[in-house]
């Protein structure tokens, strides 16, 4: 931790006094130089944040004024007391949502929305298998899957954490330490899961290929296991399933109009109280390394946030 000069908002920007910023797995990868975005150290990590607008930059007009509670996301820089961001990238924080919950929301739920709606076209009544369900993006997928009318099977490596996932809305939970292929087949009466949401990769991806339904969609979200899996192309040919890559932010950059629709939809859900981001813990900014360690050691169910 070190003091840096107070940032000043440029044209079209506002300065936000940060109240909370969540720790995402890409933050860990970014600090290790393993993320697709490479930043030269030293830099300030932190993607999702919430806070209060402190100062308007030149030319800023519209409903977001000084004193407005907001939430937003950046590629880096949120683990700080103040941050300057373009005003169009901010959302007014729903009054019923805490600063910690608002900071835990955008990236995880946008990933779940793009994956399940845009890429998988998940339909009511289908079966959704969510791996790594106790993590931030996994628990968001459980929440969104239930909202979309799917039957949700959650997996993870801890019975204690899976109990919390079921309490959050999952219909079934499977501990992957004992395998999951046969249990998924039993729960789906032999058919397999229609959509599989996989932020884990590795052995979990390999076994997922064995319990996906015909015409299923296997969503590649990430590789928290550390191994990037491969699949022999005869498997999707014979079983008639698709392997679909998901990059929520890039989807919005490639399709700006759809990207705006995606963001507006998830924040409308938040305003209507249809979703429920789970905050595992709030950690003072001075102890941000402890928050990183909690995520790295898989101690978190939902999101951990740092609070300046």
UniProtKB/TrEMBL annotation:
GO MF entries: oxidoreductase activity
Alphabetized InterPro entries for the sequence: ADH-like_C (IPR013149), ADH-like_N (IPR013154), ER (IPR020843), GroES-like_sf (IPR011032), NAD(P)-bd_dom_sf (IPR036291), Zn-ADH-like_protein (IPR051397)
Domain named Enoyl reductase (ER): residues: 2-306
Taxonomic superkingdom: Bacteria
Coiled coil regions, renumbered to chain: none
SUPFAM superfamilies: GroES-like (SSF50129), NAD(P)-binding Rossmann-fold domains (SSF51735)
A Pfam family hit: ADH_zinc_N
Lineage: Bacteria, Pseudomonadati, Pseudomonadota, Alphaproteobacteria, Hyphomonadales
UniProt name for this protein: Enoyl reductase (ER) domain-containing protein
